[in-house]
Specification:
The complex is a heterodimer.
Chain A: E1 2-4, H1 5-8, H2 19-29, E2 33-38, E3 46-57, E4 60-69, E5 76-80, E6 90-94, E7 99-100, E8 109-110, E9 114-116, E10 119-121, E11 124-125, H3 159-162, E12 168-172, H4 186-196, E13 222-224, E14 230-239, H5 248-256, H6 264-276, E15 280-284, E16 292-296, E17 302-304, E18 310-312, E19 318-321, E20 326-329, E21 333-334, E22 347-354, H7 356-366, H8 371-376, H9 384-399, E23 404-412, E24 420-424, H10 425-432, H11 438-446, E25 451-453, E26 457-461, H12 474-485, H13 506-521, E27 525-526, E28 532-533, H14 535-541, E29 561-562, H15 567-577, E30 584-598, E31 607-621, H16 627-643, E32 649-651, E33 659-668, E34 674-681, H17 683-688, E35 694-702, E36 725-734, H18 739-746, E37 752-759, E38 768-777, H19 786-804, E39 807-808
Parallel strand pairs in A: 13-16, 27-30
Antiparallel strand pairs in A: 1-12, 2-12, 3-4, 3-6, 4-5, 6-11, 7-8, 9-10, 14-22, 14-23, 15-22, 16-19, 17-18, 19-20, 20-21, 24-26, 25-26, 28-29, 30-31, 31-35, 32-33, 33-34, 34-35, 36-38, 36-39, 37-38
Helix pairs in contact in A: 5-6, 6-9, 13-16, 14-15, 18-19
Chain B: H1 2-18, H2 22-33, H3 38-44, H4 51-82, H5 106-120, E1 124-125, E2 131-133, H6 134-137, E3 170-172, H7 177-187, E4 191-194, E5 197-200, E6 212-222, H8 231-242, E7 248-252, E8 258-267, E9 284-293, H9 295-300, E10 309-316, H10 317-325, H11 338-341
Parallel strand pairs in B: 1-4
Antiparallel strand pairs in B: 2-3, 4-6, 5-6, 6-10, 7-8, 8-9, 9-10
Helix pairs in contact in B: 1-4, 2-4, 5-8, 5-10
The chains are: A alpha+beta, B alpha+beta.
């Protein structure tokens, strides 16, 4: 919203303050001022010029050479193509060094002395578009320049001064205004500034309605048929009006506040809104048949708006009707037929209070947002209608000497009730953290229109304009007092707390240790992907689709579904990164979702199932084999030990959808619950995901099922008294025999057992594999002798041979 | 013979003195003690001597042998001690061999930094599920029923629930604040907790806007907690992020779930508060909202607002990380692009 400081000065005297000081205090205490715009900056070195002489241009038909008095000793010679030039004309002259918009478009460019078709030209006679003033000086054609005939100012007067375009405009962030309907007009901001700077607030208007005219129902009966959507509707009938333009100062104010002037009547309706915050609307009395009814539209009714938008109305839309048909979309925009026209001579002025939600919903449904709707949406008080009426009357009578108020009807369905809050001065002191006196509070709040009575417990009565949802209870008063004292005037008070016990949150600690284990010990990079996953990746990962949730309005049509597994996201990530690297290790910790009816915090709320999952992937070039599966298995085997989690085991119960048929495992708890999977990604999955020339090993596990150990559970083993002996075994054994079987036999016979490698090849018979393992032997009684070692070796071979048919490799 | 042996000893010892390499040492060892060595020859010739001469020469030759062996051994140790590890030049400018190159996401790093700070103040961690409901995301937080954030153009509602209300209308949480009520309902007051996490907004993305981003929120609920004490939370965050005390100011701001509400600005770290392009010449940068929990929020959490008050702060982690490292595109955080992430090891 744009606030004109000149306009503000009508209501409060801030002449001793700079615009920056005003903007700073407003920002600190009330609303954010985003910019302080000084109008005259745009008109530097642009002056009123008086054309002394006009000569034809020797080399161009459409150009003329003007000799212009620009207030300096020498007259300026300026080449100009203006179509409406005449000798003795006052014009706007851009002198060298000033900036104008070339042909009214783009960024301003600098004017320099130059030669135009061979004739020197020391500046430019401006058209309104070149100065951004097309609204104040509408031009009939592009060649028409600004004619300052109505501005009797001496040549050389700065244009900003001549046109009173020396206003300062505060650009206020609308978001910071959403809870303050009272600030959507200049008078509200003025009231705020008066309170902040402790100044007197002048009355908005001294106009008093003739009580005899009040409720002259015979002139214009008004009925509110939807009282929950319109609490007050006043209609005033004026004769003796016409479509003359508004005086320049009024147009300049609308221009400063960001609205375009039209004609005096329309401009007055807008001026009243920009001053009071209460929108108003004008109808042409000729078209208002008999009466005004505020009601919900009937199905099938239509309305053509002022901007020629054609609406098909429903019962959800509130409209202003006469005896025959809808005339306006209530609180949003007028209809074309019934609103003001160039030949209007009698005005029906609407000043009303419409319900915020009603206006918002209709504005949204038709996607019509107007200055009026954005104000009604904030919830206005009914009392403000009186202010708006008084100001409108003032202006109409001032600008239309013939005007007569023929009638005034005022339908009131409800009056905004002022809010009363009890405020204990002790409580206030507690919340503020510093002592305030009753007198201080009274003085501060009175400036904002609050009424206060009482001493130790104050009864604070909010003004009506703060009573539509803004001020409700004690804390609202705390805020008003605190911001008027100034937040920067409160010193930091260190909070006092009770120490009870140390923070111990094992699940969070485990989650962090897992991330750090993967990142710092295992060389994985943490990634984040979106919770919505692309359909092709879900398909590639072979994820079961039932139970998957989806978004009502997804970011993209093929990304509607929310992940039930992190694997599709990892496939997508690998595919993307493989454009730059040919191996990678990444992991992600994130929630996955699945339909459900979980009660987490409140029985009134049913949430889907949401689990925190961990997924990791190792990708390597396919010519490097599939050792990545064992690498990832190793990462998982060591994870419980390094991160302090309950151990899990590996089993083969249920193949995950994305895994190769032969190379996968489940992770299971001691109780047998599956908490995750590990496997090589199948060829199918990689083909579907369009991933080539690599192997991928993936694991995913449900972290909520991985329990943190309450403390470390490492077990101490005394160091061996006698040296251990290392022995290697190379055996040949059937392909079908697993390491687990070998380990079951060998491990109990040795101190430690280590797998070294497997080998298949020409030296090994078909159907067999060669296997190398490494053991540590030892005794607690003595150092093993050569014979003892040989005996243990023989025993191991014998057992392997007996149970598994293994032979020592020759 | 004795003279021969004396000369041999002298020459050998002199030669040994000059030895610089293992090879030279071997050559000398061969020359005297090898199979065809000079001393070996003397020893071999003992058999042809008369017993008397054999005895004296033998003794003398063995004496020489002992001397040479001792000296050769000493030389060997000396050579070994002085031997370089390499027999060629080593390029010391070659890069080191890197340890595993994994790492945490820069947002996780920032989050853990802040957790460490808050946990040291006795705060606890809390995590809320990412799918929440209108009840917790809006109703409990004093958002009016017609608040625009409840609409589909702002919040990601779940299919099939968009036309429901309250606890049955489900969404990807649009902010973290709903978690505060969940925690307080379950744990009561007093309370000091932080609840970082990811939130979602339905909006067009560009270098400064994301649909999924991270927030860090902290709430303290105590009896008689003046809003000015809330600076503790603000300072804890900013000092952790910037490594030094940062000047801040609290100014009026409106958010439905706080009253009084604040916009918190910090002194521009680029210009030190004098005004520059980054802070749009005001010297201050808006970093986080905060404020005292609104009584309706406390009521929703089952707490009596006459009894309890406190302070919230909420900061965008993405933006903090962007400030910390000068990252210029917020979308990189969810890109999973290793060329980006590997910069934050």
């Amino acid at each position: 919203m744009k606030i004109s400081l000149q306009w503000i000065s009508d209501y409060v005297d801030l002449s001793d303050l700079t615009p920056e000081e005003i903007a700073y205090e407003l920002t600190m205490r009330t609303v954010e001022v985003e910019d302080v715009h000084k109008q005259e900056q745009a008109y530097d070195k642009i002056v009123v010029g008086l054309i002394r002489e006009l000569r034809p241009h020797p080399n161009a038909d459409k150009l003329r050479v003007a000799v212009v008095d620009v207030g300096s000793e020498e007259e300026a010679t300026i080449v100009c193509g203006g179509s409406n030039l005449y000798e003795g004309q006052r014009v706007a002259v851009a002198l060298p060094g000033s900036y104008v918009k070339w042909h009214g478009e783009g960024e301003p460019v600098e004017i320099r002395s130059t030669k135009l078709r061979g004739v020197a030209s020391a500046g430019m006679i401006c058209a309104s578009g070149e100065l951004g003033l097309e609204e104040l000086f509408p031009a009939a054609s592009e060649a028409e320049i600004i004619d300052l005939k109505d501005f009797d100012q001496p040549a050389g007067t700065p244009l900003a001064q001549a046109l009173q375009l020396n206003d300062v405009i505060l650009e206020i962030d609308n978001k910071s205004l959403t809870n303050r309907p009272d600030l959507w007009g200049h008078y509200g901001i003025a009231r705020e500034l008066a309170a902040i700077f402790k100044r007197e607030l002048k009355p908005l208007s001294g106009f008093k309605l003739d009580p005899a005219l009040r409720d002259n129902a015979a002139a214009l009966p008004i009925t509110i048929e939807a009282p929950h959507r319109c609490s007050r509707y006043a209609g005033l009938i004026f004769s003796g009006v016409d479509s003359r333009p508004a005086p320049f100062w009024l147009q300049a104010r609308l221009h400063a506040a960001g609205m375009s002037p039209h004609n005096c009547l329309i401009d007055i309706t807008n001026y009243v809104m920009l001053a009071t915050g209460n929108p108003t609307h004008g109808f042409d009395r000729r078209f208002v048949e008999d009466e005004i009814i505020v009601k919900e539209a009937r199905p099938g009714e239509t309305l053509e708006l002022l901007d020629e938008t054609f609406l098909e109305l429903t019962t959800e839309d509130l409209v202003i009707c006469d005896a025959v048909e809808p005339m306006a979309l209530a609180g949003i925009k007028g209809g074309k037929k019934d609103s003001l026209h160039d030949d209007t001579t009698e005005l029906v002025l609407e000043v009303a209070t419409f319900d915020a939600l009603s206006v918002r919903q209709t504005a949204q449904r038709f996607n019509v947002r107007t200055e009026a709707s954005s104000r009604f949406e904030k919830a206005l008080d009914t009392q403000r209608v009186d202010q708006a009426i008084a100001l409108a009357c003032d202006l109409i009578f001032a600008h239309f000497p013939q005007a007569k108020l023929l009638g005034f009807s005022d339908a009131v369905a409800a009056t905004t009730e002022v809010v009363t809050v009890e405020v204990g001065i002790e409580d206030l002191t507690g919340s503020l953290g510093q002592k305030v006196s009753t007198g201080e509070v009274k003085a501060l709040l009175a400036g904002l229109g609050f009424g206060i009575s009482g001493t130790s417990v104050l009864t604070v009565t909010a003004p009506s304009w703060r009573s539509t949802g803004d001020i409700e209870e004690f804390c609202d008063i705390v805020e008003e007092v605190a911001r008027l004292i100034g937040y920067e005037n409160f010193d930091f008070i260190p909070p006092r707390v009770t120490l009870e016990r140390a923070v111990k949150q094992d699940h969070f600690a485990l989650e962090r240790r897992i991330r750090e284990y993967l990142a710092f010990r295992c060389g994985f990079r943490e990634i984040f992907t979106y919770p919505w996953v692309a359909d092709d990746l879900i398909e590639a990962a072979g994820i079961a689709e039932d139970g998957m949730l989806s978004l009502e309005q997804p970011p993209a049509p093929d990304q509607a579904r929310l992940r039930s597994s992190l694997v599709p996201g990892l496939l997508g990530n690998a595919r993307a990164n493989l454009r730059y690297v040919d191996d990678l290790r990444v992991f992600e910790l994130a929630q996955v979702f699945c339909a459900g009816q979980e009660v987490v915090s409140d029985p009134a709320e049913k949430l889907p199932r949401q689990e925190l999952n961990l997924a990791a992937v190792i990708v390597d070039r396919s010519d490097r084999g599939v050792e990545i599966f064992r690498e990832l298995k190793g990462v998982l085997e060591e994870l419980p030990r390094y991160t302090g989690a309950e151990p899990f085991c590996f089993s083969s119960v249920q193949k995950p959808g994305w895994a190769d048929d032969a190379v996968w495992l489940n992770l299971t708890t001691a109780a047998g619950d599956i908490i995750g999977h590990l496997g090589l990604v199948s060829r199918r999955a990689m083909n579907f995901a369009n991933i080539k020339r690599v192997q991928m090993a993936v694991c995913e596990l449900d972290l909520s099922k991985l329990l943190p150990l309450p403390s470390r559970d490492n077990v101490y083993r005394p160091l061996p008294h006698y040296p251990l002996v290392a022995e290697d075994f190379a055996i040949v054994i059937d392909e079908t025999v697993s390491w687990e079987q070998i380990s079951a036999i060998v491990a109990p016979m040795v101190r430690d057992l280590y797998f070294v490698e497997e080998y298949r090849g020409s030296q090994v018979p078909a159907g067999k594999k060669s296997l190398l393992f490494h053991v540590l032997l030892g005794s607690d009684q003595a150092t093993l002798s050569t014979e003892q070692i040989a005996g243990k070796r023989a025993a191991i071979i014998k057992q392997l041979n007996k149970h598994l048919g293994a032979e020592l490799r020759q | 013979m004795q003279e021969l042996l004396d000369n041999m000893t002298r020459e050998a010892l002199a030669a040994l003195k000059e030895v610089r390499t293992e090879t030279e040492l071997q050559a000398i060892t061969q020359q005297y003690l090898g199979k065809n060595g000079e001393l070996t020859a003397v020893l071999k010739g003992l058999g042809g001597l008369d017993p008397e001469a054999r005895k004296t020469t033998g003794q003398a030759a063995n004496q020489v042998k002992l001397i040479l062996q001792t000296e050769i051994e000493a030389k060997k140790i000396e050579l070994s001690n002085n031997a370089p590890v390499l027999d060629h030049q080593y390029d010391l400018t070659l890069p080191g061999i890197k340890p595993p190159t994994g790492g945490l996401h820069p947002i996780t790093q920032m989050c853990y930094d802040l957790n460490d700070a808050f946990l040291s103040l006795g705060f606890v961690l809390f995590a809320e599920d990412e799918i929440s409901s209108e009840l917790f995301a809006f109703d409990h937080l004093n958002f009016p029923p017609d608040h625009p954030a409840r609409e589909s153009m702002d919040t990601y509602w779940l299919a099939g629930t968009a036309d429901k209300t309250g606890g049955s209308r489900l969404c990807l949480r649009p902010h973290l604040t709903g978690a505060s009520v969940r925690y307080l309902k379950a744990n009561g007051a007093p309370a000091r907790f932080v609840y970082p996490g990811r939130v979602y907004r339905n909006e067009a993305t560009d270098a400064r806007h994301e649909r999924a981003f991270f927030q860090y929120e902290a709430l303290i609920v105590e009896r008689d907690f003046p809003f000015a004490s809330g600076r503790l939370l603000i300072d804890t965050i900013l000092e952790k992020v910037f490594g030094h005390k940062v000047k801040t100011r609290m100014r009026a701001g409106f958010f439905p779930f706080v009253e009084p509400g604040f916009e918190i600005d910090m002194e521009c770290q680029v210009c030190g508060g004098v005004g520059c392009r980054v802070c749009k010449n005001v010297g201050w940068i808006e970093v986080m909202p905060g404020g005292t929990p609104h009584p309706n929020v406390l009521r929703a959490a089952g707490l009596n607002p006459r009894e309890w008050s406190g302070f919230y702060i909420n900061i965008g982690l993405d933006r903090l990380v962007m400030m910390r490292y000068g990252v210029d595109d917020v979308r990189l955080f969810h890109s999973g692009d290793l060329r980006f992430l590997s910069q934050f090891s």
